[in-house]
Amino acid sequence: MKNILLLLCAIVTLPAFSSESVNIYSYRQAYLIEPVVERFTKDTGIKVNVLFAKKGLAERLQREGKHTKADLVLTTDISRLMELTDRKLTQGLDNKVINSNIPAHLRDPDNQWFALTTRVRNVYASKERIGKIDIRYEDLADEKFRGKICTRSGKHPYTIALVSSMISHHGLESAKTWLEGVKANLARKPQGNDRAQVKAINEGLCDVSLGNSYYFGKMLSDKKQKTWADSVHILFPNQKDRGAHINVSGMALTKHAPNKAAAIKLMEYLSSDSAQQIYAEVNMEYPVKSSVKQAPLVASWGQFKSDQLAMDKIATNRQQAIKLIDEVKFDL
Fold first, then answer.
1. How far apart are CA 234 and CA 211, in angstroms?
2. Which of 168, 233, 266, 273 is the most buried (most CB within 10 A)?
3. Residues in a beta bridge with 119
């Protein structure tokens, strides 16, 4: 675990009127978590301690077992939520407040995890060479895009989730044929992050890429990267049928949470309008509650229809998706 950088920090000072605390293991970055938990502590007096990591939290929880200090895990995607439940590191929570705030298709049917925000897996298209078009994920395998697509590794959780959704909608064989078609249309070997693909479009290396919606906002807000973002249209796929594929950030109550009552209070707060608004504004993600306003920049991209397929159904195809990605040698 030497390659894992962990930072344990108390984000806020415990007010004198409370002796409660909550301990979080988080894949989400500090700048996203701090504003939310600071507000929670101000309102409740409950202290929040956060251990941040890029990877390895499931292994750590498994190693600690019943002696863990972690009450709650915050994750960046559905794959990590499912990893926690697959390893039986979480416990179910049937909570009226949380269930009323988070739609059923964005939480585990056994209440083992709950989505907090969503992000779209958008298609970015060159303004100059492609234009603003209606597109489906299925179209990415069409020969008209031969040599025109850039994307990150097939082994990245975002790619795995999209392939998993294609399996859910079309079956294993059709998804494999589609993935082979996308690979044949790649302009270069999969590499870099989502922003690197838009940079490549701006440089004329490709015309189309896949990327999460919030990266578009981040690029538009960055002086250097704004040029990249200005060179593309952000497209919402499959608007004439099932809707755009989404991924989620989320939370899960640990199996041996030592401060369960306080952790549940925090979970209720994280699903509330107040916390959802902070998330939306800080990271330009979509709130899971439709009543919460989107950040102005995000709202400017327009309304869209999202795929309503339950996230757990998509996630159950993760291993098959990884197998397909290996079989077609997507990254080679």
1. 9
2. 266
3. 247
